[in-house]
Amino acid sequence: MPGFGTGRACMDSQIGDIPRERLTAPLRRGAVKKPVAAIHVSGKLTLLQRKLSNVLLLNAYDTLTSQPRHQIDARTLCLMIGYNSNDMETLKASLRGLAEAVAEWDMPDAGGQKEWGVSALLAYARLKGGVCEYAYSPALAEKLHDPRVFALINLNIQRRFTSGHALALYENCYRFVRRGSTGWWTPDLFRRLMGVADSPYYDEFKHLNARIIKPAVAGVNKTSNIVVTPELRKMGRVVTEIRFRIAENPQLSILDPDDGEGHRNTEVYARLRALGVSDRLARQWIAEHGEPHLRHKLDYVAEEGGESEPGVSPRDPKAPLSPRAQRLERIQALAAARTPTQRDADRRMFLARLSGPRHDDFERHGWMSALNAEAIAAFWEEVSPGAFDGTEGL
């Protein structure tokens, strides 16, 4: 959810401050009088919970204020976030974290009157019949849907982050790219944005700088389409305020949002829509991973659940798998058996070995990367010796 996260905030994001070409079609509107908006979320969210909140918002966005409830296939949602598609307990824990987080805003309304409000980040969530249903409070839904307050985070950018603090910093800086600066924040506010306000260790600025600011800045600059530089104000030796200078990162401009209109004519798009995935989210997910990779994922979910999507024929369970398919299934099973924290570490460790086209192909296709097939198999053999014993032709 853009501008949200572990204590993350949405600041005075003004639609006129965001380059028009960066906005998805529904956000390309005429100039309006923009309010100064501030929404803070209390609660310590993990990187995966932060990504989940963004995916849920993206899925609900087009009907955010017109429908009280939103739905998506639970197994598909797990795969989108990086969970094992059977890992309902982790999904439950993540949804619980979003429902327990509190959003608070203090801003002028459309008429210029000051408005204060508070709401749970998710009004409710439930899993039933293989479907995840969830809702936002009406007041919060209005704020989330207002392009003067939020700019949606593109999944192609989000998926590259391996640090929750880096993603939080990116979300809170991205909307200021045209202004070139976030404006000045107090250390207390910054600690809230990073989700460390309840840790006395970070009351001392040198610890905050070493463990939070420097790694988060490095993550944003390496991963995203912007470059941020921290600046400090001091009274004597005490830091009283911090802001971030922001510039576009031309090296990673390819990560900018794409409407993906052409994806609507594909089989994968139709299958995702049949699973309750919204038009916007389906197009972004296809753009992020590509059709072949998602077709494999959807086949896996359909077989795993013992049923297929409407109008899709499942693979004949008696049909023999090719050696390559056997290896892919074994790799997928190995990755799915890891905890979310281990999966993040595995991905970072493997990416560190890659460069050039191989790095880019893995970023796009993950463990299904054909360009890195041999290296991926060798990696998992290191992680789990004997992992491929008994697999044909490997």
UniProtKB/TrEMBL annotation:
Domain Initiator Rep protein WH1 span(s) in chain numbering: 32-173
Gene Ontology process terms (BP): DNA replication initiation
Region Disordered, residue ranges: 304-323
Pfam families with a match to the protein in the record: Rep3_C, Rep3_N
Domain of life: Bacteria
GO MF, one example: DNA-directed DNA polymerase activity
Similarity annotation: Belongs to the initiator RepB protein family.
Name assigned to this protein: Initiator Replication protein
